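Could you join me in thinking about how sequence relates to backbone shape in a protein? We need material for that, and I hope you will provide a protein of your own picking. Label the sequence line and the structure token line clearly, so we can match residues to local backbone shapes. Would you write everything just below, so we can both look at the same thing?
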Amino acid sequence: MHPLNKAIGAVRRRNVSLAVAVGAAFLMGACTPSDVGAPVPPENSLAVTASAYNSMRAQTNDNPTLTAWGDTLEPGMRAIAVSRDLIPLGLGHGAVVRIEGLEGEYVVRDKMASRWEKKIDIYMGNDVAAARQWGKRDLTIYWAAE
């Protein structure tokens, strides 16, 4: 993610001024003067319910590593499944998502049954304990506007 996107995210989350956020980015060496003139891609955000899932037959089906879009999941992948109502919003197969409270970016690799709305499932490989510890949370996700 571009350092200025992080600065703007800080503005949105912490209600600080853009000048302070960009100044902090410069001081930390996260961006250069040439970054200031660079266009910052617009970003969408949405409050969703997030749970976690594993590659277990009891949680999926007879082929627990195969997604509804045909991708093969492997432990360690940063992948999510989305409820189908999120797909028309730009969260289709391959969309890159940031999840509040988690580091890094996740890729949409799976879609959920049509009964779910405003929901994501975070793939946690075979680590059932981590998925249980995550539980179910209400949070915000972010992705590039198209």
Notes: The CA atoms of residues 27 and 35 lie 13 Å apart. Residues 43-144 form a domain with the Barwin-like endoglucanases fold (CATH 2.40.40.10). The chain has a mean pLDDT of 82.
